[in-house]
Amino acid sequence: MGAALHLAHVHQAPVQKRKRKGGGSGGDGYDALIARVYQDDRMTPEARELILLLAWLSARDPNRYDEDGNIISWRKRADGVLGGYGHGRRKESRLADLLYADRPRYEDVRDPYEKRACAAPMIRRQGPCGQRGIDHDYTVDQETGWRTALWYCRRHEAWGRALRQQRLAAPGPEPIPNAGGLVTSYLMSEGQEAAWARLYGEAAVWKYDRSWQPPKAYSIRADDWPTPGKDPIPTKARLRLILGGAELDGDA
Question: Mapping DSSP to helix (H, G, I), strand (E, B) and coil, where does residue 139 land?
Answer without folding.
Answer: strand
